């Protein structure tokens, strides 16, 4: 690290902060996946509307379109 330019050396503290932020986000993500989710009942929400399996699949695709 002694042979580096001062500009390059100044980047390391910022990189360390970013690395710590990523670690915190990973932990939060892991914790959020472990928490049980309560299913919301749609019964009686919209009178006369029927929700079918294809509607649920369509909603999942639009909500989770960025997940792998």
Structural class: mainly alpha
So what's the overall shape? elongated
Q: Count of DSSP helices?
A: 2
Strand content: under 5%
The termini sit apart by 38 Å
Assign a percent range to the helix content: 55-70%
Largest sheet: none
Protein architecture, described:
By secondary structure, the chain is mainly α. It has one domain (6-63). Helices cover 59% and strands 0% of the residues. It has two helices and no strands. It has helices at 6-34, 53-63. The protein is elongated and about 75 Å long.
Tag the structure with descriptive keywords.
single chain; 68 residues; mainly alpha
How would you briefly describe this protein structure?
The protein is mainly α and 68 residues long. The chain has helices spanning 6-34, 53-63.
Secondary-structure map:
Elements: H1 6-34, H2 53-63
